[in-house]
Fold these 4 entries.
Entry 1:
Amino acid sequence: MPEPILTVEGLKTYFQLRSGVLKAVDGLSFSLAPGEVLCIVGESGSGKSVTAQSIMRLIDPPGEVVEGHIRYGDTDLLSLPEQKMERIRGDRICMIFQDPMTALNPVFTIGAQIAEGLREHQGLGRREAKAKAIELLRLVGIPQAEARFGDYPHQFSGGMRQRVVIAGAIACQPDILIADEPTTALDVTIQAQILKLLSEIQKRLHSAMILITHDLGVVAAMADRVLVMYAGRMVEYGDVETVFREPKHPYTIGLMDSIIRLGGARDAELRSIPGMPLVPVDPPPGCRFRFRCDEAHERCETETPPPRDLRDGHSVACHLLAAEKA
Ligand code: SF4
C-alpha cells in the first residue's frame, strides 16, 4: 500500500449551539492513497460534508475542529498558517460543491474566474491563463469553449455550470479532489454525465478523490473504498467489494437492503431503516445507532463501540462484531 496522501486521525468537529453541542464529526479516522477514490456515505446530518469542510478548513463559528489531525503528506493542515492553507486550498486540494452557483461569482465571466485561479496559483500571464482556461473548458465538455469564455454563470444550465466548476477545480491538477454531492442539484439525466466526467478526469490526472454521496449506486460505480458514517461517527470502512458483498454493521446492512440490486431475487423485499437519524446534539453515551437497531442490547446503551479491524482494512464499529471476533 503506498503512503497515504491524506490522513485523518481522531477528527472532532463540534458546533456550539444554544441547544447544546452538536458533535457533527466525532472521532473520525481514515486515510486516502494517491489516485484512490474514497466514497463517504450516510444520511443527511451524518457528518459527511462537515468532514470535507474540516479538511478544507472551511468550518465557520460556531463550528470548530476541537481535536484530531489532518495530514496532507507530512503537513499538518490544522496547524498551518491561513496563508499557506490558502495555497493548498484551490491548488493541491480542491473542492467541488453541491450547488455550482455557490462556487461561481455571478458578476464575473466564467473564463475570468478560471483564468484568475491559474494566474494566482500557477503564476501564468494573462494570455497563457486565458488559453489554459479555454483548454480546460474544452476538456470538461463545454461546446464552443472559446466563444463561451466571456459568458456569465447565469448563461449556463446547471449541468454546464457544474462542468465549469470542475474545470476550475482541476486547473492546477490537484492531488486531491473533494466532491460534495456534486450532482444533487442537477437533473437526473445530467447527473450520470457529470459523474462520468469526474471519473474520467480523476483517472486522467491521477488525483485522489473523496466523493461524498448518499447514493449507493454511485459508490458501487466509482469507489475503491467506502466509509459509512452515522451521526458523526464511522460505522464501517473498507474496500468497496468487501463492504458491498459482506456488509457487517447493522446500519450498512440496512442501507444495502434498501436498494434494488442487479442480479438479486425478483421478489426480494426492499426494506427501509425504521426511525429517524439521530442528530448528535449532546448525544447520549453508547452506540448512536441503537435507537434504530434490531440487534441493540444492554451494552449498546452504555458503551461506544470502537472501530475494530476485521481483516484487510475492513473496519466496523459494533459490539456484535467484537463478540464475533472474540
Ligand atoms: Fe446495533 Fe449495538 Fe451494534 Fe450499535 S453496537 S449497531 S446498537 S448491535
Note: Residues 250, 287, 289-290, 293, 295-296, 300, 305, 318-320 surround iron/sulfur cluster (CB under 6 Å).
Entry 2:
Amino acid sequence: MNNDFNFKKKYGQNFLQDNNILEKIVNSVNITKDDLVIEIGPGSGALTKKIIEKTNKVICFEIDTDLKKYLDVFEKYGVQIIYGDFLKQNINEIIKDIKYNNLYIIANLPYYITTPIITKIIDDKIPVKSCTFMIQKEVCDRLKAKPNTKQYNSLSIFIDYYFEVEKVLDVSKNVFYPKPNVDSSVILLKKRSNYKVNLKNEDIFFKLISDSFKFKRKTLRNNLKSYDLDKINNVLNKYNLDLSVRAENLTIEQFAEISNVL
Ligand code: SAM
C-alpha cells in the first residue's frame, strides 16, 4: 500500500500489518471452498488476501471508494466488492441467489460502529455460522461480561442469547497503521444451534432488557415503571430478590423468566 494513502479517521481506518495475526483471524474458523465469507471493511485487502486462499465466494463491503485501486485486483479471484455503508445493505437480498454451505462474517471492524454492526447482523437475521471480529479490547470484555460486573450490559445479554463467545487473541495497538489509541481483541461469535433460554416472545424479552438497563445505576423499580411490577416482583422473590435490584445483578435466565410472565 502506498504511503501517500490518505487514512480516514472517521472511517476507523487502522490497517492490520501483522501477517501472523491475519492468519490467526482467518484460521479461527474452518473455511472451505463451498463456504461464503462476508468481509466488512476490507481496507487495502490484507485480510481479503488470506480469505481467498480458502474460498472464492467472498463479498466485501467497503465504504471508502478511495480504496478501489487496492481492491480491484481481487475481482479476478471472484470477489464481489460492494462500495457502500455495510449498515445500509440488505444482506439477505444480496446473498439470496448464492449457493453456499456455511456463511462466515470476518472483519477487522471499524470500531466506531461495532455495536450497530453486531446489532444489524442479529436484527436482520443474517444466517451466519459465526462472526470473527477484531474489536476494541474493552468492548470484547463487555461482550463476554458476566452478571455483577461493571462491564455487564444489555449487549452482553443479547449476544449471549444468540452466540457462544470466545476470545481468540489479544492484539497490541502496535501492529496497526496508523496506530490506534486502544488495544484490540479478536473475538469469535458462534451462532448457537439452540438459543440460550426459551422465550415465549423475543420482542418482549429484548424490550425488557433494554428498558432494565436504560439507566444503569437505577433499580428495576425505577427503570420499569410502565411494567406490571407485581408480576416482576413475584419472579424476583423466588430468588430472594426484589425490585430494588439493578439489571446488572440479573442473569439471562432470570430475565427470560420475567419476560415469560409479562
Ligand atoms: N480489513 C482491513 C485491515 O484489516 O487492515 C481494514 C480494517 S479498518 C479497521 C476498517 C475498514 O472498514 C476501513 O477500510 C474502512 O474504510 C471500512 N469502513 C468503515 N466504515 C464502514 C462502513 N460503514 N461500511 C463498510 N466499511 C466501512
Note: The chain has two domains: 9-191, 202-261.
Entry 3:
Amino acid sequence: MAGSKIVALAGGVGGAKLAEGLAARLGDRLSVIVNTGDDCERHGLLVMPDHDTVLYNLAGIEQAGLGWGIEGDTYAAMDQLAAYGEEAWFRLGDRDLALHVARTSRLREGGRLTEVCLGLQRALGVAAQILPMSDASVRTQVRTADGWMEFQEYFVHQRQVPDVLEVRFDGAALATLTAEVATALREASAIVLCPSNPLVSIGPILAVPGMRALLAAARARGVPVAAVSPIIGGRALKGPADRMLAALGHESSALGVARLYAGLVDRFVLDTVDAALAPDVAALGQGTVVTDTIMTDDASRARLAGELLAALGLGA
Ligand code: FO1
C-alpha cells in the first residue's frame, strides 16, 4: 500500500463522500477525476458543482445534510442579486461565491482550468488532487417532454420532476484529456468508480475521448478497477439516478449499474441489502464485495474506503 496511487472517478455528493474517506487514508496519493458536465455559468461566473462538492468535502467544510456548498454560508449576495432582478433559483452562498469569483478571474487572466482548480484546492489545504475530467467545456443536457435543457435547469429549477427521455454531453466529442488526468491514470495502482449516478456523473467522464482507453490500458496492466453501486435496494440515496435509469431503459438496481459497467470494471461493491444480486453481478465478470455502503459520517466514509482498498489488494 505504501506509495500506491489511487484514482477515483466522482460526481457530486455520493462520490464526494467516498472520495473523502479515501483522502483520509491516502492524502496526496489520491487523484479524483471529477465530472464537469454539471458546470454552469451563473452571473458571469463559472460554477463547477461536482468539483466544488468534492473540494468542500475534502476540505471538511461542506454543508452538513446537503453535502454541497459551505457549512454556515450566508446568502446576502444572492438576495441582493435577486433584488436587481437576476435569476435566483440557483442559490450561491456568499463564501461559495468567492470560489467562483477567484476561479473565473484566474481563467480570464489566461489560466488553464486544471491548474486554476489545483491552486484553489491548495489554498483550502486539500492534499489530494481534484482533476476536472477535461479543460474543455462539456455540458450535460437532458431532454424531457419540454425539450432539451441544461442539467441544472432540470436538477435544481425543475427539481428532477420531469422524466428524462435522453441525455447528451455537449462538447464531449471535441474535449481532450489533460496531462494530469492521463498521468494519474497511467500511474494508478487502482481505480475506483465512486457511488455516483452512472448516467450523468460517471457517464460524462467516460465520454471524454481517450478516457475509456486509459481505463482499459490500466486493466490490461493488471490494475484493479472497482465500482461502488449508487443504487441500494433499487433506490438512489440521493438524486434521480433510480428514476433516470428506469426511464432510459435500464434496471434500477445495483445489477443494472453493474451491467452498465460491464467490461469496464472487474470488481463491484454492492450493499448488504442487495446481497442476493451478487451472483448475477459475478456472472458479468465482476468480483463482488458485499458490505454496508451507506456513508452517514466520517467514520463510515473511512470504513468503506478501508474495505474498498482492502478489496483492491491495497489494505494497510
Ligand atoms: N442544489 C440545489 O438543489 N439547489 C441549489 O440552489 C443549488 C445550488 C448550488 C450551488 C453551487 C453548487 O456547487 C451546487 C449547488 N447545488 C444546488 C447542488 C448541485 O445542483 C448538485 O450538486 C449537482 O450538480 C448534482 O451533482
Note: The CA atoms of residues 190 and 219 lie 9 Å apart.
Entry 4:
Amino acid sequence: MTGITLALSKGRIFDETMPLLEAAGIRPLEDPESSRKLIIATERADVRVVIVRASDVPTYVQHGAADLGVAGRDVLLEHGGDGLLQPLDLRIARCRMMVACPEGFDYASAVRSGARLRVATKYVSIAREHFAAKGVHVDLIKLYGSMELAPLVGLADVIVDLVSTGGTLKANKLVAVEEILPVSSRLIVNRAALKLRRAEIAPIIDCFAGALAPV
Ligand code: ADP
Ligand code: MG
C-alpha cells in the first residue's frame, strides 16, 4: 500500500483544514509554520501531508502527485480544474472576489463609457470572464501580489482581488464596487486515484463531510 498524500498550503487553509483532518484522525506531526519540511507525516501511518503554494495545489492533485488537496475556488477557477473532482465545499477560508477602485473613481461611468478599463489582478481568467460578460473592454495587467498598490500609482484603474474584512482596501483608500463571486475552499481529489483507491479515499471524504460547519 502506498498511502494517501494530501496537498495543503500554509496559513489560513492549513489552519482551517485542521479540524476537518482531526475528524479523519489525521494529525500532522509537525507545524508547517515552524518546520521547513515540505512532507509532513501524520498520526495515521497511511496519510502524509505535502505543503505547497496555494496556487500549486490543483497541479499536484491533477498529476496524481497528491491524491487529495484543499484549494480556494479562486485558485480552481484560474487552474481550470482538469483531472480534478471537487466533492466538497469545505466552507473554510471564505471571502469574496471583488472589483475595487480608488475612493474617488467613478466606476459606473467608466464601465458605461465603452472606453477600455485597465484591470490589475492575480486572477486574470476570472477577471477576463467577468468583464467580458458585462461587455466591458479591459486591458488585463497580471500581478502576483499587493494588487492594492496598482491603482494608487497609475498602473491600473481598478483591481480584482479577494476581500474578507475590507481592512486592506480601506488602509489604501480603495473601495469595493462590485462582487464577482463568493469564494471558499474546496476539497479536490485526483479523478483516477478515487477510482482506483476508493476504499482508502472515500472514508476520508466522508469524515470531512461529517465535520463541515453548518451552512
Ligand atoms: P498566496 O499568498 O499563496 O497567494 P493566500 O495565503 O493569500 O495565498 O491565499 C490562499 C487562499 O486563501 C486563496 O486562494 C483564497 O482561496 C483564500 N484567501 C485569500 N485571501 C483570503 C481572505 N482575505 N479571506 C479568506 N480567504 C482568503
Ligand atoms: Mg497571501
Note: The longest strand covers residues 174-183.
